[in-house]
Design goal:
homodimer, 542 residues, alpha/beta, nine-stranded mixed β-sheet, seven-stranded mixed β-sheet, 27 strands, 31% helix
Amino acid sequence: MMNTQLTISPLMERAEKYFSKKEVISRTATGIYRFTYGEIGKRTRRLASALEKLGVKRGDRVGTLAWNHHRHLEAYFAIPGMGAVLHTINIRLSPEHIAYIINHAEDQVLLIDDDLLPLVERIKDHLHTVKAFVLMTDHDELPASNLEPLYSYEAVLQEGDPNYQYPADIQENDPAGMCYTSATTGNPKGVVYTHRGIVLHCMGIGLADSLGLSESDVCMPVVPMFHVNAWGLPFAATWFGTTQVMPGPRFTPQILAEMMESEKVTISAGVPTIWLGLYQELERGRYNTSSVRAIVCGGSAAPRGLIKAFAEKFNLPVLHAYGMTETSPLVTASRLKSYQQELPFEAKMDLYAKQGMVVPGLEVKVIGPNGEVEWNGQEMGELLVRGPWIADEYYRDERTADAFKDGWLHTGDVATIDEEGTIKLVDRTKDLIKSGGEWISSVDLENALMAHEAVLEASCIGVPHPQWDERPIACVVLKEAYKDKVTKEELLAFLTPQFAKWWLPDDVVFLNEIPKTSVGKFLKRALRDQFQHYFTVQKETK
Amino acid sequence: MMNTQLTISPLMERAEKYFSKKEVISRTATGIYRFTYGEIGKRTRRLASALEKLGVKRGDRVGTLAWNHHRHLEAYFAIPGMGAVLHTINIRLSPEHIAYIINHAEDQVLLIDDDLLPLVERIKDHLHTVKAFVLMTDHDELPASNLEPLYSYEAVLQEGDPNYQYPADIQENDPAGMCYTSATTGNPKGVVYTHRGIVLHCMGIGLADSLGLSESDVCMPVVPMFHVNAWGLPFAATWFGTTQVMPGPRFTPQILAEMMESEKVTISAGVPTIWLGLYQELERGRYNTSSVRAIVCGGSAAPRGLIKAFAEKFNLPVLHAYGMTETSPLVTASRLKSYQQELPFEAKMDLYAKQGMVVPGLEVKVIGPNGEVEWNGQEMGELLVRGPWIADEYYRDERTADAFKDGWLHTGDVATIDEEGTIKLVDRTKDLIKSGGEWISSVDLENALMAHEAVLEASCIGVPHPQWDERPIACVVLKEAYKDKVTKEELLAFLTPQFAKWWLPDDVVFLNEIPKTSVGKFLKRALRDQFQHYFTVQKETK
């Protein structure tokens, strides 16, 4: 067979050639714009040649700080197309971490959105490698700025060559992209995506049994393009000639609902919070969302209630998926097998609430204390993944050794796998409570507690215990109206029928607030620190 | 990214693991049998280990002479799974050519169907490399035979290990399969398929925009498994957990129609002749074919009339596709773009009658006398293809140089490409008529002639001409009832309104028969030899 390399520029070339009339609808700071793939293709070539003029060379990293819009899409193809490396920077990291990753990646040029300019200006003195800044602005005039040199994206494009030819000698294992993922402690960890990994991931996304992305779709990635390549959708959608709708900066649920209706979106993708907001907006307004065939939900577990409510109230199918920065990201998709289609509605909802089955091309296994767990939906273990779009290291980072062992990525996610091979995430390994040689899911306890009408937030942690290694305690924040009106005995009584006796927390502690990370997740580490002597001290004072 | 190799055994392992209850329905010489993927998986492992016991080593070729059934499917996975090479032998070749390709491939073992045993017995003295014969029979007792040693497939399986582990060190560029394609002159030419090529081709087949093969499909490959891996369907269908229906030896249109109905087939694939037979059967009987979503038609051009008749009469969509042995085979599929869905019925039929657009992953171009042709659906040129599932040589064959040049496969097919990038085949390069620097499609002329009620067969050839290089003449066989009742003037008058004047044949010659190849195609070379002096001699005798 021909030694044809799986590289990225042919994806855009296919869109240019075969889908030149199809559109990319882009919302920017100033409005909604429509471009054809014919136009996007030429603009992308201009960008690649302009970046070469700015001194970007093969293998150089080019950073982007940008929302989802057509210019970011052009960067997605121009940068790897010319042989450089697209480094999408997560703007939600702290300024210190943003500076760290720009320096660690050694970004040569930064492409920056209007509203993110102040962020870069604030850290500019800490940036050691950046030689030029390009502002992705709709305005003709550049704002006053302390960044130097600062160019206008559109002016740079004007200097570029619309007939630029992508180099033909890029190898499929060459780096194409980078994304850093925040770590529990320490600096973010970098993942490098190769051309081959991205192309194979695109094929994975196009398979009828995963997302089945197709030319006839209208795809709106709400998941940010600075977050695992917007789950690979911009690459795949371009390749297949899919119409793309890019919701731009600081969108609201209303904007999403309006664009869904007006552009007849068929598939969209985002995290549960986004869909919760959309659900509430759909309840408020009157939108026609009948074009939508799939609401892809990932990033964290989609609540069963939300999946069911979307189905019952709006006939909108939530397609639950799982992945992480290290996995490009698609690992599992929750689709029913043909013989599961006959199941009753509630049983289907149970399945849709799981993360689903591994997509073709990858392998997973779930490793418990005694090796691979039984496929019974009960036994818990860490989820391991391998395959051609799974990272095999962190970029120049000694934490590689913790996550990549024996050819498998150790995800740090705890899962069960049922008789049909369906994965359900139950916890993070570091949050799992290990009691007397058995495992207790902190997430299951929390979800059960948060279903109580009095509970605003609940976080369950394993606390060192002299006899059982660890025992669970529940940290609970009550809703304002219930403060001092609910006892721990009531909450434990509420949990009792739902769990085995040994799963029940040994204590319920009422707090005013659960400490959180910068992205709003419970900071269980802080709670564990706070309560580490809970049982030992109690014992001593007895 | 992980250096995960794209190899074949994980495809079967996925079916075993995740689709162990799904079925393969297999028609053999004695009846219809049902196996689960759980069973097929174990039988495949048994076969691999049994072949090792028979002395098959890494890289050895193992030949099959077999129809479409479960045992052939097991061979599809056991042989490449163990690191050997699956050589599917086209039983329709002449016995001399079959002996040639077995020797040329150096097959070590042959797996043979009951009814093909006499074929092998006849050539056995000419086979130089085969060390063992295995009969794929349903019967417990072996028939008397001069083949030595001859084993029973089921007995061999009994000796095999159902827990055999496939070697994990197979590389994706290792050979996995072989298929020989008949040549116009000389011996058949061998194409070697790699693991990588087959896996990527499977992904191509699973893409929503090509065949969209999925777990929910019931797939019946009618195209023989000895013909370009039954177009890759057994590999892909197994990977995706698709139910497979294998129609076995010497099926009839009635058998196909019955299996389609009883097994609720959703997608089937075969050559136009098969579908013509099925169409007639559907007209005769009363079959429920409402489960069918696609009748994939390839191998030669599907007549527009047949596509239209299937659509109008039975609401059955014919999915026209194009490929060849050298291309694994899928190159194009005739699907409408989203904005073409609005076209009127007849315009859609026009598009469905074309071979369609190149599938994601491959590149095509059409090269005429002056380089790449315009995308106007008129200008003709040779179709060139490249990509990761396209061969780059013929196996140990100096004819490689004719077909593989500058990184492209020169298909020998003449095509046009329209404004939307849709390919339409119009001829073979060697049959194209070159008249005064312009090209005339012999196929277009033939099709027009064969639409005349008096014409049974027509073949148009280019004959050397002193002034125009070549001029077309038409060789026509009249139907019995019209013999001596139709003149050449009448036929030319019939053609005149349909073509430019210079396209019209300079003469119509009535023959009793058109010479044909062993597989029933017009042998135009013989006609060209016969008429090579037609114009020069005519001139001289004037």
